[in-house]
Amino acid sequence: MLIIFFALWALSCAEPSADVSYYVHELVGIDSDVCGSGNFGKACRTVHAALQRVPIGTYSQYDILIQVNASDGNLPIANKNVEVRAAYDRISLRGVTSIGKPLLSVTGGGKLQITNIVLLHHTPNVAYPLITVDSSCELILYDCSLETSKISSDDQYTQPFIRANGGRLKLSYIAVPKISFISCAAIETSGATRLDGFTLEYSTFRGVTRGSGDGSSLSIELNPQAHAQIMNTSFLGENIVSSNKITSKYSNLDCNPKTSAVHITGGTVGIQRSSFKGLSEGGLGLDETNATIDSDTVFDHNNPAQPNYPSLRRNIRCGRGTIL
């Protein structure tokens, strides 16, 4: 039995074939100025320590490999180019509430890519997002899941997973399972100026709700020259049905004209091959936006119709100054 244990332990510490700049292993890593240079016995104990080893400058990208579940906080990516990725599927990186800061902050022209990691939010009532992105910075998420620590299924969160104040945000193959926010969206951007300021593709938001305000899954604010692109992405609520038949399970008779799952203000947006289904808040909300939606995008049973309440069905809300 002991031999099997050590064999599995050695396997979990095996180096991948790809080049790795710095390793992180919370269980067997070391606290040292030279940590991260190897695997077993040489990895950094924390992501923070590995980031300290990354040199200043964005010309070259440095790779940080997380080998087991990790928890950390106040990780600044300032004037650095970093990819943080997991050695295996379902490895998580959790924000530590007691640190009192976002898990990751991309500032000072920094570039951050996170690959194949489950990102776990802080406790529900924190006063800061999980990740923040400043202007002139870049955040790429690839094959990641944005989740909670599941303290309680009734928890309502006060802060988004991601808040970008300008800069570039690209999200590919992202999953956001059921979560409820009080007055924010799962992902928020404001003041994006770049033509490719926001891109979302091949992703799924399932059962994301918001208590007040507009935009539960996404709240995107663009400057006039900026562009947002949403492709091959599903926004799914709890009202999904297999046919157009009205059933008695629909109990939400409120039709708030100022709510939606995805709210976009300003700039231009293109939506392709995506779906908005069963969303009790409504599907898409547009304000002062020039939007193009292709014929392969589906809207179905969003704030679905009720007997004697035909006006409750609402797929797209076009607000002031919108061109669709």
Could you characterize what this model shows?
The protein is mainly beta. The protein has a domain at 166-242 and 253-324. It has two helices and 29 strands. The chain has a 17-stranded parallel β-sheet that branches. Strands 4-7-10-13-16-20-23-26-29 form a nine-stranded parallel β-sheet. It is globular, with a radius of gyration of 21 Å. The termini are far apart. Residues 1-17 and 242-255 have low confidence and may be disordered. It comes from Streblomastix strix. This is Right handed beta helix domain-containing protein.
Average the pLDDT over all residues and give the rounded result: 85
The overall strand count is 29
Total DSSP helices: 2
The first-to-last residue Cα distance is: 66 Å
Estimated share of beta-strand residues = 35-45%
* Residue share in helix: under 10%
> Uncertain runs with pLDDT below 50, 5 residues or more?
1-17, 242-255
From the spread of the alpha carbons, the general shape counts as globular
Organism: Streblomastix strix
Protein name: Right handed beta helix domain-containing protein
